[in-house]
Amino acid sequence: MVGKVAVIGAGVIGGAIVKCLQECEHVGSVVATRRSIESLKPLKELKWRLVPIRIEPSVYDRLVQIAPDGDVAKLLKQAVEKLLSEISQ
């Protein structure tokens, strides 16, 4: 199994590759890049949701330091899941 695959330039061809990789059982996660967030919206319908947030560079740098393996997205996801579980109790 491949843990993470990055597709630089998820245009017409790259976007198709991203969709196939997201459906593949042998790939853990897929990271796609484009010049604009708007152009990534068609890809969000499969396994993830695009939630753009702005974080000051100094705050992001601090989050990288405390995040497991420097994975800020994973840290934020865990924090939100914990918050939601505490709210629902």
Please characterize this protein's 3D structure.
The structure is a single chain. This protein has 89 residues and is α+β, with helices and mostly antiparallel strands. The protein folds into two domains: 1-51; 53-89. It is built from three helices and two strands. The chain has helices at residues 12-23, 57-66, 72-87, and strands at residues 2-8, 27-33. Helix 1 (12-23) links the parallel strand 1 (2-8) and strand 2 (27-33). It is globular and about 40 Å long. It starts with a strand and ends with a helix. The mean pLDDT is 77.
Termini Cα gap: 36 Å
Annotation, overall tally of beta strands? 2
* Class inferred from helices and paired strands: alpha+beta
Strand content: 15-25%
Unreliable residue runs: none
Shape: globular
Q: Topology, please?
A:
Blueprint: E1 2-8, H1 12-23, E2 27-33, H2 57-66, H3 72-87
Parallel strand pairs: 1-2
What key attributes describe this structure?
89 residues; alpha+beta; two-stranded parallel sheet; 3 helices
Please give a quick description of this structure.
The chain is an alpha+beta fold. The protein has 3 helices and 2 strands. The model has no long low-confidence stretch (mean pLDDT 77).
